[in-house]
Amino acid sequence: MGDVLLVILPALILTAVLCAVATALKPRNFGISEAERYQRELAVKSQAHYAAQVQAAVAARARVEATTRPSQNSQQQSQQEDHARTAQLARSASTAPTRTGPGDALPAFGLLGPQLLLELQSLARSGHKLKATRLLRQSTHSDLKSAKNYIDRL
Questions:
Q1: 96-140 pLDDT tens trace
Q2: Are 106 and 89 a contacting pair, CB within 8 Å?
Q3: Helix 114-125 to helix 129-140 angle, to the nearest 10 degrees?
């Protein structure tokens, strides 16, 4: 048993020394640490999230512009329809007997375009009632009295 110890003990010590030397000489892993890997994953996820947000914002803006800004063809068509409607109302108003009184107004005034109505209101409220009356008469081909009464009521 003593002979076995004399042979095994140096063999164990030699094995331990060889393992220590092999471990010391083993190339170390100079790769990225866990913290750096986590930061890189977060950066990639953040970029993907930002790209998705930008894409959603662009799509939302396109939807808003599509609903608020009609194409030029449909805009021209709606303008032509408005002009035809205004002309027809002006013709029917000129052939119909006009009412006299403080509240008379042409039926065409009820169908004014929103831009024209806003412009008339801003002119009337800023004290330019004559310009507003002139603009209304040119737009609807109405008489002076009914246009003036309409502007006064704005």
A1: 444 444 444 444 466 788 888 889 999 999 999 999 999 999 988
A2: yes
A3: 160
